[in-house]
Amino acid sequence: MSELRPLHVINVFIESWFRQEIIENVLTDFSVYSDDVRKALAEMLKTEVKVSGFRNPLTAPKRLLVREAEKLFETDPHFVKVILDAWIQLYDKHSSAFDNALKALGFKTSTAAPNYEDPINAFDQGWPEGIDYPKVIDAIRKEDEKLDMTDDQISLYSILRTGYLPGEKEE
Hints:
Elements: H1 16-28, H2 35-48, H3 62-73, H4 77-89, H5 95-104, E1 124-125, H6 133-143, H7 151-162, E2 164-165
Parallel strand pairs: 1-2
Helix pairs in contact: 1-3, 1-4, 2-4, 5-6, 5-7, 6-7
């Protein structure tokens, strides 16, 4: 059995501009999240993110908060979990379309996904043979023709739904 990887490994698979976009989207409107996610997000930001000149980072200008949050996102799997728990809720209305398309492509869902209770042991590696981002994106868009997500968002959501990072399965 292969070793599971921590949640912050997702940074290897996303560009820095997309990481910023994820954090900006999450910090835009807390009212859209479940009570548990909203509480965890606010607590994590208040205790872990330090913005110079602000006792409460939530009162800092959004740009400064995003910049400091991004630093944590790169290194702290617990922080990544809280951010991605919120981010995934933004697109959960599409979960059944994703599940149908990904299952048709041969994806299985890891035992950790999509809740990732242990951010240190979260991702497995290995997409089905012959499957890459364009095939996943195409299958998802065919499953839900009114999908309001970018290709990068589709790719990340697919990884989060299945718990598998792209690449060869490591034995």
